[in-house]
């Protein structure tokens, strides 16, 4: 589902060339898919609590296969945007899975269990790894008279087939007797936690560690191509280096959150991201000094090569991998009976961050004139989340007794 949701990060490049799109038009293809993968997360989480994750997943897999197939046949930019929006429904699978997994595991193991489930985010790298090779191997005319399309259209066709196969596999192998923590409860009672400010604070955290992850997964191939003039194959491979740790470290992040507390993990996450984005946001160039004799001199040149850039991007990905697990460790601790609803809202707002960021990146680049402004946007959002968390902790400690001055985890927050 994640591979389908974020496939336009790589496919957007040949699509841009075929349809002759501007940077802003290009950004909207990924953005509308991310949008539809965000706006239904709250109702999908509630839905999964009420009917069970097995049934919800089978329905979502089957429904998402339809627009995936239609994308392989699209002939205009307008239709492509419409189908990209529809296929983005795949992204809502995350809140269904969070509800489903938490219902099956005890609280002291939920951090690790949710981290293992969240490692499925690595699906975002599948297109990055396979698409460039398939674009070369599969003939443009496709197979069987074009029934199986060629070029970039081959990828969504294959995903449509895989979605149907996964729905069949889940129908056969997932436990028939499912757990439904929301069965029999009113929608009103399931939405009551939305009144608590901590739910919205967790959502901002998730914008930083997940919304930014989604945005970068879609934006980095273009960044590598435009700034470092790499080929699509190399740009996609380097983007995958970011995606892998950002996904596969979630189980470790969940384990650490179980052992030392989610808030400590988030402090480390935000601190690491602030340092890395603070370096990456500085524009490349130099300072020109005018000497007394009228001559000029260039001093303090600054630029980052592709190796150093990729290293810092991987560092950000590692921090996000730990941070995503830490955010979702909070939810079953504070809202054990409403994981679907709260997890859905947090996931929805986090994914909406992924929707707004690519257009923000494009606008910031147009406004400033330098592509490094991408990381200025990320730096400011991360700083806002870190400050809100820190001031919340400080406020909590001021209300508590002095012996809690070094204790970050507290049941009243």
From TrEMBL:
<feature type="transmembrane region" description="Helical">
    <location>
        <begin position="56"/>
        <end position="75"/>
    </location>
</feature>
<feature type="transmembrane region" description="Helical">
    <location>
        <begin position="26"/>
        <end position="44"/>
    </location>
</feature>
<dbReference type="GO" id="GO:0042128">
    <property type="term" value="P:nitrate assimilation"/>
</dbReference>
<keyword id="KW-0472">Membrane</keyword>
<feature type="transmembrane region" description="Helical">
    <location>
        <begin position="235"/>
        <end position="253"/>
    </location>
</feature>
<feature type="transmembrane region" description="Helical">
    <location>
        <begin position="154"/>
        <end position="174"/>
    </location>
</feature>
<keyword id="KW-1133">Transmembrane helix</keyword>
<feature type="transmembrane region" description="Helical">
    <location>
        <begin position="81"/>
        <end position="105"/>
    </location>
</feature>
<dbReference type="Pfam" id="PF07690">
    <property type="entry name" value="MFS_1"/>
</dbReference>
<feature type="transmembrane region" description="Helical">
    <location>
        <begin position="126"/>
        <end position="148"/>
    </location>
</feature>
<dbReference type="InterPro" id="IPR011701">
    <property type="entry name" value="MFS"/>
</dbReference>
<feature type="domain" description="Major facilitator superfamily (MFS) profile">
    <location>
        <begin position="1"/>
        <end position="397"/>
    </location>
</feature>
<dbReference type="GO" id="GO:0016020">
    <property type="term" value="C:membrane"/>
</dbReference>
<protein>
    <submittedName>
        <fullName>Unannotated protein</fullName>
    </submittedName>
</protein>
<keyword id="KW-0534">Nitrate assimilation</keyword>
<dbReference type="InterPro" id="IPR036259">
    <property type="entry name" value="MFS_trans_sf"/>
</dbReference>
<dbReference type="InterPro" id="IPR044772">
    <property type="entry name" value="NO3_transporter"/>
</dbReference>
<comment type="similarity">
    <text>Belongs to the major facilitator superfamily. Nitrate/nitrite porter (TC 2.A.1.8) family.</text>
</comment>
<feature type="transmembrane region" description="Helical">
    <location>
        <begin position="339"/>
        <end position="363"/>
    </location>
</feature>
<feature type="transmembrane region" description="Helical">
    <location>
        <begin position="265"/>
        <end position="286"/>
    </location>
</feature>
<dbReference type="GO" id="GO:0015112">
    <property type="term" value="F:nitrate transmembrane transporter activity"/>
</dbReference>
<keyword id="KW-0812">Transmembrane</keyword>
<feature type="transmembrane region" description="Helical">
    <location>
        <begin position="306"/>
        <end position="327"/>
    </location>
</feature>
<feature type="transmembrane region" description="Helical">
    <location>
        <begin position="375"/>
        <end position="397"/>
    </location>
</feature>
<feature type="transmembrane region" description="Helical">
    <location>
        <begin position="199"/>
        <end position="220"/>
    </location>
</feature>
<dbReference type="InterPro" id="IPR020846">
    <property type="entry name" value="MFS_dom"/>
</dbReference>
């Amino acid at each position: 589902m994640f591979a389908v949701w974020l496939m336009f990060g790589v496919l957007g490049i040949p699509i841009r060339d075929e349809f002759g799109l501007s940077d802003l038009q290009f950004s909207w293809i990924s953005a509308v898919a991310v949008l539809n993968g965000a706006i239904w997360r709250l109702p999908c989480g509630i839905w999964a609590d009420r009917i069970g994750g097995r049934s919800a997943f089978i329905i979502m897999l089957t429904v998402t296969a339809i627009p995936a197939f239609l994308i392989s046949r699209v002939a205009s930019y307008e239709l492509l945007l419409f189908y990209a929006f529809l296929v983005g429904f795949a992204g809502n699978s995350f809140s269904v899975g969070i509800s489903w997994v938490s219902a099956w595991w005890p609280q002291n193991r939920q951090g690790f269990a949710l981290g293992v489930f969240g490692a499925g985010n690595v699906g975002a790298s599948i297109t990055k790894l396979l698409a460039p090779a398939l674009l070369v191997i599969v003939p443009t005319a496709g197979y069987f008279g074009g029934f199986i399309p060629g070029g970039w259209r081959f990828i969504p066709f294959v995903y449509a087939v895989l979605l149907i196969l996964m729905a069949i596999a889940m129908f056969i192998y997932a436990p028939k007797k499912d757990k439904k923590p929301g069965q029999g409860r009113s929608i009103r009672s399931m939405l009551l936690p939305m009144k608590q400010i901590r739910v919205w604070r967790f959502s901002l955290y998730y914008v930083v560690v997940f919304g930014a992850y989604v945005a970068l997964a879609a934006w980095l191939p273009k960044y590598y191509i435009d700034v470092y003039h790499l080929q699509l194959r190399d740009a996609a491979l380097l983007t995958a280096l970011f995606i892998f740790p950002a996904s596969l470290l979630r189980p470790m992040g969940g384990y650490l959150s179980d052992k030392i507390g989610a808030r400590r993990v988030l402090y480390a996450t935000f601190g690491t991201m602030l340092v890395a984005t603070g370096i990456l946001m500085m524009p490349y160039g130099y300072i020109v000094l005018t000497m007394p004799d009228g001559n000029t001199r260039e001093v303090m040149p600054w630029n980052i090569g592709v190796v150093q850039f990729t290293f810092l991007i991987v560092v950000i990905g590692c921090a996000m991998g730990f941070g995503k697990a830490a955010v979702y460790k909070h939810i079953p601790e504070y809202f054990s009976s409403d994981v679907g609803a709260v997890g859905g809202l947090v996931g929805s707002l986090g994914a909406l961050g992924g929707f707004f960021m690519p257009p923000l990146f494009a606008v910031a680049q147009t406004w400033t004139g330098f592509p490094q402004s991408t990381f200025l946007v990320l730096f400011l959002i991360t700083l806002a989340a870190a400050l809100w968390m820190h001031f919340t902790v400080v406020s909590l400690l001021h209300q508590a007794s002095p012996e809690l001055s070094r204790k970050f985890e507290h049941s009243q927050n």
